[in-house]
Amino acid sequence: MHLKRRIPVAILGATGSVGQKFVSLLAEHPWFHVVALTASERSAGKVYGQTVRWVQESPLPGDLAQMVLQPSTPPLDVRLVFSALDAGVAGDIETHFAQEGYVVVSNARNHRMEPDVPLLVPEVNPDHLALVGRQPYGHGAIITNPNCSTIGLVLPLKPLHERFGLKQIHVVTMQAVSGAGLPGLSSMEISDNVIPYIHGEEAKMESESKKILGTLKGGQVELADFDISAQCNRVHVLDGHTECVSIALHESVTDQQILEAWSAFEPEPQGRLLPSAPKSAIEYFDEPMHPQPRLHRNLGAGMTVSVGRLRPCPVLDWKFVVLSHNTVRGAAGGSILAAELATARGLLDRSDGGSA
Amino acid sequence: MHLKRRIPVAILGATGSVGQKFVSLLAEHPWFHVVALTASERSAGKVYGQTVRWVQESPLPGDLAQMVLQPSTPPLDVRLVFSALDAGVAGDIETHFAQEGYVVVSNARNHRMEPDVPLLVPEVNPDHLALVGRQPYGHGAIITNPNCSTIGLVLPLKPLHERFGLKQIHVVTMQAVSGAGLPGLSSMEISDNVIPYIHGEEAKMESESKKILGTLKGGQVELADFDISAQCNRVHVLDGHTECVSIALHESVTDQQILEAWSAFEPEPQGRLLPSAPKSAIEYFDEPMHPQPRLHRNLGAGMTVSVGRLRPCPVLDWKFVVLSHNTVRGAAGGSILAAELATARGLLDRSDGGSA
Amino acid sequence: MHLKRRIPVAILGATGSVGQKFVSLLAEHPWFHVVALTASERSAGKVYGQTVRWVQESPLPGDLAQMVLQPSTPPLDVRLVFSALDAGVAGDIETHFAQEGYVVVSNARNHRMEPDVPLLVPEVNPDHLALVGRQPYGHGAIITNPNCSTIGLVLPLKPLHERFGLKQIHVVTMQAVSGAGLPGLSSMEISDNVIPYIHGEEAKMESESKKILGTLKGGQVELADFDISAQCNRVHVLDGHTECVSIALHESVTDQQILEAWSAFEPEPQGRLLPSAPKSAIEYFDEPMHPQPRLHRNLGAGMTVSVGRLRPCPVLDWKFVVLSHNTVRGAAGGSILAAELATARGLLDRSDGGSA
Amino acid sequence: MHLKRRIPVAILGATGSVGQKFVSLLAEHPWFHVVALTASERSAGKVYGQTVRWVQESPLPGDLAQMVLQPSTPPLDVRLVFSALDAGVAGDIETHFAQEGYVVVSNARNHRMEPDVPLLVPEVNPDHLALVGRQPYGHGAIITNPNCSTIGLVLPLKPLHERFGLKQIHVVTMQAVSGAGLPGLSSMEISDNVIPYIHGEEAKMESESKKILGTLKGGQVELADFDISAQCNRVHVLDGHTECVSIALHESVTDQQILEAWSAFEPEPQGRLLPSAPKSAIEYFDEPMHPQPRLHRNLGAGMTVSVGRLRPCPVLDWKFVVLSHNTVRGAAGGSILAAELATARGLLDRSDGGSA
Q: Chain C: residue nearest D192 by CA?
């Protein structure tokens, strides 16, 4: 898809950790052009570069550093807004923008489980985008991105569920500190340590997975009916969530069938050559020491999910390891890919002038 | 038990990570007195303090620093030897010492799964010590300590297995770097990283647990018959293995029954007031953020196993988190406690002069 | 000195990082007995154990965990208060307590440079305690503790200044994250990183050193007249500040003379056997890899300052490395030692009813 | 400069840490094409990808992964060899290659201080390349790269020395673990720690700086005559050496004059648009928290040296902070830039067939 000119977009909550990642990733995006950054009342009116506590490894782009922060309320001179808002405020603000006709692509958890809101992983459930047709927002819409740990899980599960049927899923996560936002974890809490608890995370992984891998029927998502158990831990890693997954399937299969299911996976974003779609959504490693956060989190510019160590599980059927970049694939990058899919499917056209 | 004078002991392989921990823990032991340290041919004859790459947080005790390293072969002027040897050489050397009449308490894996060798966790299977009666070593004996990650697992499982019967166990570990020995992991490998593989570790956890929780019948250990699946990871923690455990039981029980099983657990080492037995072998935490390696690994001088986050598992029955100090409880400290139990049960007397 | 009964004390600002360290260190103090903990208005009235974000490696003492937090204002049922307050509020609160007749021993920076306030390192300038006689507080008093990085520096400098006269001092620090308080540095800021700036720290080191090593004359401190240049960095260490020091002396001396000056150093707290005085205030290491934070910060229960690598400096005269525990010797422990000195010198008697 | 076809090159010692970095950086180099990788006898004959313990963040390039390792001896089918050999063997092997007519660009320390060997930092002393004319190797040559910590220092010193004359230099380094090679430092040695000693490093910084900033006169380098004192520390950072520098100058200057000297610095590699020359060799930051390893080490693809915090020094004249990427600018990248300069100046032509 070639656009005549780039689409202007805004980032809500641009000073936080996810907001910064949106800024980084959109700085040179071929379709989207950042024209507005917002922040809380306290910071609105200040210059972005002087307000943000920048912790990204790439330098803050100069033109965006100069931008004056706006409050997180309509109107903004765009049709598409990315929301990196805190859950404490995201719900109402996003609803407000949608009501005013904006297309909101959100990384916040607030609207994720609402029946008419797509909880979108573009490679996994692109058809769920149709749910926006049931939203009460006219030309506006809300599209959400799952929790960072859920995304890494559902991608390799999708082709297995489709072919063999998932019966049971057991997942233990080792999550990076960047997932906790800014300031997030104090260095004194996580250095030389593991924290075996992340508030609300296990419930999110368990419920979101069932929606994402659920089936769209009659305009509604019927939740997947597998059992799923999540245990979530914070470890001393900057970026990249590692997950130890065990599964039981409805069919008896070989490891070769599972590997074949992964390698044959050809999702819509790759077919459409969306700008943020990695060449491979899933990459499998034979080397038993792989994948590792530091070596593989940036594969596919952070959008590829790495998988390794497939082997039989003496309790369920199979077990394997998953790694995904939590602030790229699991947050800002995932939202951008969702917006690309929505754009490619014409969702923005629909609302251009209201006559679609 | 009061000893008239301390028992002289030797440490085989005193320069490595586990060897150093033996040195630290035995420096002021009320029963045992270190009179010999051994090392490889290459280091024998050198002064310990000038040879060891000391990485313990407590300073190297002055008198031991002056000791000249001996080769790892009999004779040594002791009856009891602790083995911190590498698995590459431990097997033959330990057999040799046992044949010459020494009581060897070993942290190496070589003899662990032999049918006549106790794989001892003193709180869990003290009766297995009787296996030494079947060994072909006369007054000599070999007693082994399980793998560091196994010990933390079997302690809280013991009272549950005894009362309710374990059917299935699923465990994912997050293991400290000190478990990899010295030099072990390069800083470049584990900083900002997780390594989702530890060579041989998963098989060891699965097989050793069945032996330790097995039943002594007719002088032999009948392996426990539960299913067990282990996934082992290395994380950036200096000391302390954290484990996410899910279990299915033969009986349907409440969380209160499980907590009661743990709090009522009264093992033999605590009853005998062995010097290295912590007041509580198992300590349960209500706070959901606990246990954590940095906060709890040193509980009970590193010998208490901390447990937390008991809650239902949607796939198996219950899940919880376990933390134990891998080089104390999981290695040197565990061996010392085993030696204390053996001493208290008279195993050293048996071989004093041979007339016992 | 033997006390008939322990002296009741309070800790102002008990929930922060330094406050927690006071709680840890005073939990089993032979002279002092904590009977009150205070916090900000927001936390007053809450139970300490449920309010504090405890990050100490030793568990929170049970009886103090149950204590109800009081607001940081008089009256408190004690004579001696330790202040771990933030500099933002410490100044006025401490003055208020002193005016009401309390003896305040403070770790905050607010009053440090006032001419009538002792900036006390008990081994270095115990005579400066006499300054309290000039304070306008009647039986009340304010005694302060220097900045954490200053304390490690002035201890080994003291005997050199006394014997040979310091002309120039150049110091570069590598400071632990615990010095930044709680939450302090985000894990994302300091992991895999160095931050070459600590707000206000260099000026504090430069000015405080001149006061501490200054001379009490006519009831006033005459500042030391050396030149001093400090560069302060934050590194990824939990506890323990390392400092690279270069000095020029007024006299030409040998390394042996310097080592002799350190080993012959016999300060008042050690002479009085104060409970928190380490056996050696300064310990020198010959091994060139030493001292190191993880190996030596806990020497002398965290109160010994470790020194190593004395060698000629091609630019000034001599250079060496210093290590001290920043939250023990450099904060709470240093304050407690100061309070012990004040107690031993009868400062608390003076104010007991006024009839002393 | 446009080449008709890429120049074939070899990497000696390709499995180590610096060797891996050469592999990464040369994988897509516009001028050079890697056709041979060498290793020790023990590894020669093995496939590179199966032998190397790869720790780079970018994946190992596929074609190089397949390459069979050759022994580190002539002949190799190239004219230009990069040496990442250990100092233990580098000296003789490099001499041997030079004698056989190869141009050796080495990162090893062995030949650095020899009078006829250029110790090259292409922005600082490109004229020193002429020293090869005095070497006894015919068409062969040895060019060396300074120690990783020296390079970061001499770059910002160069324009100051040129304009104002350096009288005294005092530098304290905080060096990354990647500088220690592989396996290098054990995670247990450096996590939560600082090691205040790096064997031989201080002497190297002191002597190499005088050679690099020395003057080529009559075909020889006259050493610079400033005093220099270095203190070298290892900190827990993966890549990027930070240095706290204080200097005294022969002239009295303002901070503006120093900043102007840095911003006006226009060295030869940038003028020639060498492929590895960063746009700015030196970049100055006004923000007092900058530069930091994690934020700035990759500036200019790791070839820019970042500088910040210029301010008066109460002991010498001025002080500032320097950061440079130790394995890129300070090792492999620096060697490649040196080879590019040598190529651009025709050094390879000279030896092509001997008729030059």
A: C237
